[in-house]
Amino acid sequence: MTRAEAGVVDSPALADIEATRESLRDTARAQLGVTGDEDTEGFRTLARRYGLSYYPLIALGLLTVSDNFQAYAFTVLTPEISRTLGVSITAVAAARAIAFLAAGIAPLPMAALSQGRPRRAFLCIVTGLVWSVITLSTGFVTALASLVAVLALDGLTSGSVVALHSPLVVDSYPAEARVRALSAYNAFFAFGNVASPLLVGLLSGIVGLSWRGDFLCMGGVSIGISLFSLGLRDPGFGRWDTEQVRATVRSAHGDAGTGPVSRSVSLGFWEICRRVLLIPTIRRMFAGLAVYGVLLIPLNTFLSFFLDQRWNMGPGARGVFFAAYFACGVVALLAYGQRGEKQFRSDPARLLRSAGLLMMGSVVLIAVGAVVPVFGFMLVSFSLSGAMSILLLPLLYACVLSIVPAQMRPHAQSLAAIFLATGSLVGALLLGGVENQYGLAGSLVAAAIPGVLGAVLLASGSGVIRGDLDRMVEEVIEEEEIDWIRRQGARLPMLAVRGVDFSYRHLQVLFDVDFTVQDGEMVALLGVNGAGKSTLLKVVSGIGIPSRGSVRFDGEDITYLDAERRVRLGITQIPGGRAVFGPMTVVENLRAFGYSIGRQKAVVERGIATALATFPRLDERRNSLAATLSGGEQQMLGLAKAVMLQPRLLLIDELSLGLAPVIVTQLLEMVRAINAAGTAVVLVEQSVSIALNLVEHAYFMEKGQVRFDGRAADLLGRDDLLRAVFLKGAAAGSGG
Known about the structure:
alpha/beta; four-stranded antiparallel beta sheet; 65% helix; six-stranded mixed beta sheet; single chain; 30 helices
């Protein structure tokens, strides 16, 4: 049944938004780099056309190279540092563990610092200078305490590389060059894994410097790189994709030169993290990244022991092996970038399928390299495995950063790093247990099992990434369209729920629900038990977060806003039969209701006095436990919350549930009074006769879908919806 057939009456402003989304979706998708074909121009051609410089890519790439200096130098020089400082290997290992912990949590603060304001370049420069000074200072440590301090600070400053570098690369170059730009940046990272150990070997083995001299020289080189990066500038969030979409929306209205209007609601840090983790593709990819983490630090560690024990390769030979391993990755990244770009432009799902195949090929080649008896074949197997493994990151990050709103990209990168680190920890335990039973070769072969699982998880994202990309596009278009509507002074609904899906785990309850409430309106929400009415109220109040769709309050997007923040905006819910705290007295309940007012004690006390004056029966029982109140008195106490808070929107779930008709009549009179004072009311009611006599606007839900939206009087004529059995049940509930 169409919305028109169901009697739906849409706001003109909301209809305009839907029309704009439909007309601009394909254009917006292309502006995010997805055109449906493989046509793409050369990177240099694009750079010339847009007047772009290679400097941001080079500066960020060199910063990620210098970020490796401290870690590699410390790894190689640990024995000398231990002897000089007179501390045990165990103590040095503990200090290193603190550094790894600091590096693991560092991306999240960096994401928080970059939230809201485009200052990522500034943070990258500052942290680059700090870790450069730390590398230099390592040469001056004289005790374990100072060693722990420099290692922890180095780990904390490294968070900018994980959280900010890739989003900066994406925002510095056009969407049609995204995969190639990320591939080139990751080639710098892989090159750093080649250059860093070679530099340590050069300074120690050939130049003959002490470990202190090594750190001084590497710190000096790192400072020079950081100074080179001083020209970095933040191009702004989504400059080459989402901002282009916004400009297209404005241009469609002949308003190309005007930016977004100010907003009173913005998501907090943890709300953004939750919003990112609700994206279906992200969940699959992060699960795959956790498995990929097994192939990083733990696998390389076991591989080093394997080369030592199986092939008798000393430190120098192993160093050359790993240099060649990462060098193959550099070549693969530079060679595959163009091909990956074509895949992404044609269909991002192809990129995820390729990532799955690369991970599967990588782990299979690891298993082959572990058992093959010929040294040359072993070398080729591991080199190809390394190339495939290193190729994964730019492909995955191109997908992640394309389906996440531009301001949230640092958060997505930070969360990805946590999943990678978690996988590394689990991988160390898993491979260690296998090694104890089956030896080093057995542990490398065993890595193929989680590797195949991770490959399947990554490939499974191909089925949902197109939908997630379109939802992100629609969100940007809707936000910009609402800004335009506001600038025109047009009226927006107070509450607008659009296209909402909601599930309890694997059970979907709401399907593409649209629900609108005007300022000061009273609306009835009707339907049989299990229709999804209470679930819809949870979505509006923030108790439940939808898997799809949006919830807007006065045009502000509150879809992912915490429930307590919605109360402060003026949204209050009274749940049927669960509106009070039983072990607390009436007055204590009222004080709890006033918690959202904050520390304004006088305001809370005035609100309590007003509530008790409004409900004299509650005043008589002010010191009684709420559990001892009658059902009607408990509902009065629930309604007292609305009297205290004076919300703009009051959601009432089953007010008359189990109550005598005379009590229901008294409560409904109070609801009328609350509405007359200016509060919009959504009333979920089991009694059709009561609800439709109280309101002019009604919704009817069935099986998680809105089947009717219109005048309450018109609903009475819909026998196909108001079945006789439902009407009888309603009459019984109202005593009629």
